[in-house]
Amino acid sequence: MPKQNQGYLVLDHSYSPGLPDAQARRAGVDAGEGFFEADTFTCGHCSAVVVKHPLRVRERETCWKCDRWLCDLCATVRKLHEPGVCRNMDALVDRLQSLDPSDTVNAARLLADHQHFMTLRGTYG
Amino acid sequence: MAKRIAFTPTTSGIAATADTTNLVDSTYLALLRGASTTQVTRVWEVVVSGQVSAASSPMELPLSYDSTVSSGTAGGVTDNAVDPATAALGAPVVTGNTFATTKPQRSATGKLLDCSINGYGGKFKWTAYDMSFCPTMLGNAASTGELSLSCRAGTVGALSSHIIYETQ
Prior knowledge:
The structure holds two protein chains of two kinds. Chain A has four helices and five strands; from the N terminus they run E-H-E-E-E-E-H-H-H. Chain A has helices spanning 21-26, 72-80, 89-98, 104-122, and strands spanning 6-13, 34-42, 49-51, 62-63, 68-69. In chain A, strands 1-2-3 form a three-stranded antiparallel β-sheet, with no helix packed on it. A two-stranded antiparallel sheet of chain A has the order 4-5. By secondary structure, chain B is mostly beta strands. Chain B has one domain (3-167). Chain B has strands at residues 3-11, 30-33, 40-50, 58-60, 62-68, 74-75, 78-81, 94-96, 98-99, 105-114, 117-118, 123-128, 136-138, 146-149, 153-154, 159-167. The chains are: A alpha+beta, B mainly beta. Chains A and B meet through strand 1, helix 1, strand 2, helix 3 and helix 4 of A and strand 10, strand 11 and strand 12 of B.
């Protein structure tokens, strides 16, 4: 598994009533009360930060082209709509920055294509 | 190419606002918007601190792309370089939680990080270890060119926050 794209999350409710359990689960944290810390990863395709739940046993998807972890939504889009397509955000950044600054048409086209992908992703969650 | 910190002092007028609805001035924590069509900004850290003094206030606080980008004179957020020796950006990222002309709207599909806390004593902190872990803001248009940190639902109350970001 790729070891890059990790971050660190702390949710401290040591001196607080905390979050309702349902809300905590939606946020991807283990418990709404007390002190919670976890590693996170950032999806290589959409840039969303995902809490690595310590009890998850289901495999995380990775993109074999960019070697980055994918969130469940991007993994679903890739599986159902765009098999084999890599939507790596850093590659998009590189393409944008390699354009001539006056080439706003191609810049807009690249961003619109990414927006289409984000809209598709949004239909699953 | 240096880190900057967008700090929002205690904001007591936080309001819960649905997706794709105008975020009213001073009812959300912060917003970052790119300064040009190809500008790239990475978010390194997000901290939200609960400042409610009396009663439990669980709030859902997504960091999200905006589907409608703001415009007009910005205010309400203090933006400074982390290192005081940093040279000023030629095209600085726009930060604020008040905008004179167009109010931003949070995207329904572009949530990046759930910063939910209980405003009564809660604290949220997320940090990236290096640039490949950072959520990316691209350009200055919908839906990747603007990020907002706002309350979507819950029992609202006072909060403060900061976002550390770096523009490439």
